[in-house]
Amino acid sequence: MKLTNKIAVVTGASSGLGKALVELLVKEQVKVFALARSIEKTKFPTAVIKIPLNIRDLQNIDQAFDLIDQKTKKIDILVNCAGRGLVKNFEDITREEIMDIFGINLKGNIYIAQEVYKRMILKKYGHIINVISTSGLKGREAETIYCASKWGLRGFTESLKLAAHAHNIRVSAVYPGGMKSENFWKIAPQQDISQYMDPILVAKEIVNLLKSDYSILPSELVIERN
Ligand SMILES: NC(=O)c1ccc[n+]([C@@H]2O[C@H](COP(=O)([O-])OP(=O)(O)OC[C@H]3O[C@@H](n4cnc5c(N)ncnc54)[C@H](OP(=O)(O)O)[C@@H]3O)[C@@H](O)[C@H]2O)c1
Question: Does any ligand 1 atom lie closer than 6 A to the CB of residue 53?
Answer without folding.
Answer: yes
